[in-house]
Amino acid sequence: MTFGSRLREYRDHRGWSLGDLARATHFSRSYLSNVENGRKPATEDVARRCDEALRAKGELIAAARHDATTKLNDRPWQTAELISRLQTSDTTPNTIEALHSTVEELCCQYNRRDAMELRTEAHEWLQYVGSLLRRPVGLKAHTDLLVAGGWLALLAGCVEYDLGMGTAAESTRVAAAQLGIEAGHPEIVGWGHEMTAWFALTQGRFRQAVDASRRGQAVAQSTSVQVQLIAQEAKARARLGESGLTTLLESGRDLLAELPYPDRPDNHFKVDPAKWDYYSMDIHRMAQDNAQASEYAGSVIRDNIAPDGTELSPMRIAECRLTLAFVAGREGDLEEAVDLGVEGLKDGRQSKVHLRMIASELDQELRRRFPGEGAVGGLEDAMRAV
């Protein structure tokens, strides 16, 4: 689907006129009309601003890039072609740039692609990057390859943990952090700490999660991962029973507001305002602030469903449904709570360990609120299948 068609689809889905979009993006209505109707190409800037205004989660940016690619005389980069160039030591700036584009695209597929397929492809690319690093290349190319390898290792480690491969995920995480150190790349190093915090959080080691979050914030200040680390710290402190986390949440939101809006908000390793709402939802759920938790859950679900009904981030939507299940249980509606809980645990792209943590917290709360009720068993059955 062309950029113009996707733009019109998202605009209609939000109930916006071209005038509304013009006011939000600061482009003229006539210019946007020409872009939407294909009379003018969508520049990177207009795609980014429209994507941000319509909360398209990178879909409009991707559509604009696809349009630009199809207009080139040369065929677009394909995996086999890029590998061939890399294998012949054609580590020119254009080749390295194409490699980084491929890595970013893989990172953007994290939320929706089959986990095992994504892990396999990430490992294949890691092997090729590794073979290049064993060859004589220039200093800049060497650093660029270390960075590409670092992002690929982070991605592979996240997917491995999603699949329940904890030992492999930790080994991959260590390798990613080491690549980040060698490349002098604080953000990759910071994501290594973030993964440590995430692993500890989902395994119930909340104090270690706080410590890892703090270490990561110290090495990756004023970056996207610092925002994520603040969120992980807040999640862990909430489960330690600490109160007064509003200040910590506000510090994360303030930092996020200072950072540039990501070109690809669907990149797993970038944090945007919509993702921050998702993190805040967890804190408010743990604090039993039901109204705010429910509001965030509804907003995140709406933002992650495309006009055609496709779930753009199945894992995020799953946790939102579990959050709504908590709220239903607290309001006395056990049947609705179980139904929403089972819906949140349905088959699809899942972060298994993370999902089990939230579902277990839900199961414990429902059993406490509804002792002896057999209906809670339906949630337990669904948990067993995860």
What does this 3D model show about the protein?
The structure is a single chain. The protein is mostly helical and 386 residues long. The chain folds into four domains: 3-70, lambda repressor-like DNA-binding domains (434 Repressor (Amino-terminal Domain)), CATH 1.10.260.40; 77-184, no CATH class; 189-256; 272-386, Alpha Horseshoe (Serine Threonine Protein Phosphatase 5, Tetratricopeptide repeat), CATH 1.25.40. The protein has helices spanning 3-14, 18-25, 29-36, 44-54, 59-70, 79-87, 93-108, 115-133, 139-162, 166-183, 186-202, 206-219, 224-239, 246-258, 273-286, 290-303, 314-330, 334-344, 352-369, 377-384. Helix 1 (3-14) runs parallel beside helix 4, helix 9 packs antiparallel against helix 10 (166-183) and helix 11 (186-202) packs parallel to helix 13.
Low-confidence runs of at least 5 consecutive residues: 72-80
Kindly provide the name of the CATH class of the largest domain: Mainly Alpha
CATH topology value of the largest domain = Serine Threonine Protein Phosphatase 5, Tetratricopeptide repeat
Q: End-to-end span in angstroms?
A: 34 Å
- From the alpha carbons, calculate the radius of gyration and give it in angstroms: 22 Å
Q: State the helix count.
A: 20
Order of helices and strands: HHHHHHHHHHHHHHHHHHHH
Please count the beta strands (DSSP E, at least 2 residues each).
0
What is the helix content? over 70%
The description of the largest β-sheet is:
none
- Domain tally: 4
Beta content = under 5%
CATH architecture of the largest domain: Alpha Horseshoe
- By secondary-structure content and strand pairing, the structural class works out as mainly alpha
> What is the averaged pLDDT score?
88
Q: Based on CA inertia axes, which overall geometry fits?
A: globular
